[in-house]
Design brief:
about 250 residues, mainly alpha, Four Helix Bundle (Hemerythrin (Met), subunit A), Helix Hairpins, flat
Length: about 250
């Protein structure tokens, strides 16, 4: 009976959903001992699930499944949260409390029931490989303009470009077209008219080069690579149909 429960994916998925819901509600009552007990119960349940599966499938059989690897890592990360049951002083330790949130990632197992999920994952992997060089080039572009912008405007707008790290975050925001106009406006308020005009032209160029062209290029290559796998399958099927038609003619 115990094996049937913990080896049933539907039952375990229901437990994951209930656990995630309780964790969400418990976020409003961090000092409530009831939610600490409930969290610990779910941690023990998922730990038991891992033990039952390992005993049933064997370690090699268990570890061969990617979802089992995912579950096992999350359970191990959540085990330290059981210390919250030992003493009330641990209850207020944010680090230990954060460990229990790892279990919320188990809700990703919902993806396991998406039709053709393996096909979609394969497409994502292919897209990542195809766009790898472009992403690296984009990151280099980001770093170069971050250093340049920090050198030019670091003293004028230190809140945005005071150092290369801060500038990198600001330029990335600009590339995503997020509040890009705030940066030249801040420079305009703290500089003379000539520098203000230069800043507006400079950031407009960055927006066009990195935000409109750069990000669009990365997105288009990624999406095209994901669709390419599907196109290859269609092409192969068409070739098979053409081959059968030729055989029928002969």
């Amino acid at each position: 009976m115990l094996h049937k429960i913990f080896l049933n994916d539907i039952i375990m998925l229901a437990l994951v959903i209930i656990n995630t819901s309780i964790m969400y509600i418990g976020g409003f009552y961090n000092e409530s001992y009831i939610f600490v007990v409930l969290d610990s119960i779910f941690t023990l349940l998922f730990l038991t699930e891992a033990i039952v599966k390992i005993r049933t499938l064997g370690w090699k059989g268990y570890w061969a499944d990617g979802w089992n690897k995912f579950d096992f890592i999350l359970v191990i990360c959540a085990i330290p949260s059981l210390m919250n049951l030992v003493t009330d002083t641990v209850l207020s330790t944010n680090i230990l409390l954060s460990f229990r949130t790892f279990r919320a990632f188990k809700s990703f197992r919902l993806f396991q029931f998406i039709p053709n999920i393996d096909y979609l994952i394969r497409g994502v992997k292919l897209a990542c490989k195809a766009s790898f060089v472009v992403v690296i080039a984009f990151l280099i572009l980001l770093l170069v303009f971050s250093i340049l912008t920090s050198t030019i405007f670091g003293n004028i707008a230190p809140e945005y470009f005071g150092d290369p790290a801060t500038a990198t975050y600001s330029i990335f925001r600009l590339f995503t077209i997020e509040g890009w106009y705030e940066m030249p406006d801040a420079i305009a308020q703290n500089s003379q008219e000539g520098m203000s005009t230069f800043a507006k032209v400079y950031f407009s160029f960055l927006l066009f080069a990195g935000g409109i062209i750069g990000m669009s290029l990365v997105n288009s290559i990624f999406v095209d690579a994901m669709a390419q796998d599907n196109n290859d399958e269609v092409i192969n099927k068409l070739k098979e149909i053409e081959k059968k038609i030729d055989e029928m003619k002969n």
